[in-house]
Amino acid sequence: MLFKTASSPHNNQAYTVDQIMQRVLLALIPGTIAAIVFFGWGVFINIIIASITALTCEALMLNLRGRPIKPYLTDGSAMVTACLLALALPQLAPWWLTVIGTAFAIIFAKHLYGGLGFNPFNPAMAGYVVVIISFPREMTQWVPPLVEGYTHLNFIETFRLIFTGIAPDRFAWDAITMATPMDILKIQLGLELSINDIHQHQTYGPLFGSISGIGWEWINGLFLASGIWLAYKRIIDWRIPVGILGMLFFLSNSFALYDYASFTPPTFHLFSGGIMLGAFFIATDPVTASTTPKGRWLFGMGVGILIFIIRTWGGYPDGIAFAVLLMNLAAPLLDYYTMPRAYGHHWYEIPGYHKEDQDE
After folding, report:
1. What does the alpha-carbon distance between residue 28 and residue 226 come to, in Å, rounded to a whole number?
2. Which residue from 150, 207, 237, 334 could staple onto 290, CB 3.0 to 4.6 Å apart?
3. 323 with 303: CB under 8 angstroms?
4. Do 194 and 262 meet the contact criterion of CB atoms below 8 Å apart?
């Protein structure tokens, strides 16, 4: 019997780019639905705006670069960038802010470096940092969670507000926007109030749930479950999210044990803001993260350390985007110094690596 033997390499990749992106988008669905339920239609509208912008910019850049449009446009990478950025933006962010952030992510952070596989920075986080630095006031337009006592807009009212900036006549602007629990804790702790005083405050009390902010704990819990599924399917490497969450837990728990009144507990850090989205869906980007096993541990722990530092002492309530981009800079260095041995030898024993050292 004759067997056909294909040319090397014989160990094929388990998933194609299209399949990876499809599974990532599928894993985003539960947390996205929870975000819409708790914070309104603005989440859905942001995703639509970001998706249209991302696909348009992707097609434009592919055409300018002389690349075939359909294969790259349908691989799902632009859609993943759009969804991640849209989920990170405030629910009532004006439409032009979403367009600017998404366009920068696709055009500057992705295609000007050579497209998918060549970008050194996570495109979604690059776009997010641009808008949060350039438009800080618009980036504070968060809505309160779906709890009694707070005003919520329907789809038409939300759509009108995002595209015109005009709030419904029956609502005051302050009634439909407010600071997030992370913002509140950061500001009030700066005024030397204790954690218990902030939680018991009549104005802010309803915002806090069992372990974190109302709504945020459910969203992060669902992103955690989806992230575990991605790790189980080997779409992402489990070392990076475990390094992020483990280091964040260690640092926040250590400081909380030292002074519980002045530092937020680890449960709040792990289920507030976009930590699970960042740990499982953003930091695990195979292009911009470290590629070696040991390097991924160090990459994840570095992101966790930077998130805690920025959250605790920085000028922003959440530091996921800045932490990921800073560690993107360090990823090549981590890969260089954590390169695994080849066939039982050290990397410097492999011909071609540091040949000048071998000659000496």
Report:
1. 7
2. 334
3. yes
4. yes
Does residue 300 contact residue 282 with C-beta atoms inside 8 Å?
A: no
Which residues in 228-308 belong to E strands, given as ranges?
A: none
Burial of 309 (0-12, 13-18, 19+ CB in 10 A): middle
How far is 83 from 187, CA to CA, in rounded Å?
29
pLDDT tens column, 214-254 = 888 899 999 999 999 999 999 999 999 999 999 999 999 99
Q: Which two tokens stand for residue 4?
A: 């056909």
CA distances to 52, 82, 264 from 64, in Å: 18, 21, 49
First to last CA, the chain: 54
Q: Across the strands, what pairs with 142?
A: 178
d(CA 111, CA 23): 23
Tens of pLDDT, residue by residue over 261-285, are 677 888 888 988 899 999 999 999 9
Rounded CA separation 251/312 (Å): 11
Read off the amino acid at residue 196.
N
Domain ranges of the chain: 16-177, 181-336
Q: Nearest CA to 105 among 65, 78, 75, 87?
A: 78
Q: 142: Cβ–Cβ under 8 A, 6 or more apart, which residues?
A: 39, 90, 91, 92, 177, 178, 179, 180
pTM beyond cutoff 0.90: no
Residue 354: what pLDDT? 52
CA nearest neighbour of 49 among 21, 87, 9, 4: 87
Q: Maximum distance among all alpha carbons in the chain?
A: 81
CB 318 within 8 A of CB 182: yes
**DSSP helix, strand, coil percent of the chain (3-state; round to 5):** 60, 0, 35
